[in-house]
Amino acid sequence: MEIRVNPTRMELSKLKKRVKVARRGHKLLKDKQDELIKKFIDLVKQNKELRQEIEKELSEAFRNFVMARAAMSGQVLEESLMYPVGKVDIKVAEKNVMSVRIPQIDIVGDEEAGGEETNKYAYGFAGTSGELDNAISILADILPRLLKLAEIEKGCQLMAVEIEKTRRRVNALEYVMIPTMSDKIKYITMKLDENERGNITRLMKVKDMMMQEGV
């Protein structure tokens, strides 16, 4: 590899300072990468467990809906689900995790929609089946965890992107910048040593010539 650099002591001093800074930065980035990976693994575990729970409950709710549709007329089922009993406001904030801005989702429910069990249902119980009640109850209870799952999954995506960026920077420092600057330092040191030996050789020749001339 051809190295093009001005072999001076000033340039050598600059390169040594840059290598020192690069090595310190490499250590900090490596520590950040390790901590990001640790937190990412924790998030992935949480995501897996929560997703499995939610998928199980959604399957149960879907089965209840199918059974309710078989037991009730289509018109009664549609009328039972036509009007909502309340509303849910969602507030999205951000939290900083190792320089990664992860969304934080909070639910602000309508006062009329919370508290009593009957507030989950927009219909009377006389003409509906128990399966429909079970399905509605499951879906009402699962909403906060669905939003939590969305928060965790988005956090996993953002942390994965940050891990990849950090990994590239670590590799660039470890395998490109630091080795290149180290090679330049070796090259300049070698050139300065050669120049020093050349100067000593010339001085010795001048001294010999002067001694031969009797000066």
Into which percent range does the helicity of residues fall? over 70%
Q: Class in CATH? A: Mainly Alpha
**SSE class:** mainly alpha
The largest sheet has its strands arranged as 1-2
Largest sheet: 2 strands, antiparallel
Could you list the spans in which at least 5 consecutive residues all have pLDDT below 50? 111-118
Q: Tell me the span between the first and last alpha carbons.
A: 48 Å
**Order of helical and strand elements:** HHEEH
List the domain count as a whole number: 1
The second-level CATH architecture is: Orthogonal Bundle
Q: Tally the helices: what do you get?
A: 3
Outline the structure in words:
- This protein has 215 residues and is mainly α.
- It has a single domain, classed as Helix Hairpins (Orthogonal Bundle).
- The protein is built from three helices and two strands; from the N terminus they run ααββα.
- It has helices at residues 9-71, 74-80, 130-212; strands spanning 88-97, 100-109.
- It has a two-stranded antiparallel ribbon.
- It is rod-shaped and about 130 Å long.
- Mean pLDDT is 83; it is low at 111-118.
Layout of secondary structure:
Elements lengths: L8 H63 L2 H7 L7 E10 L2 E10 L20 H83 L3
Antiparallel strand pairs: 1-2
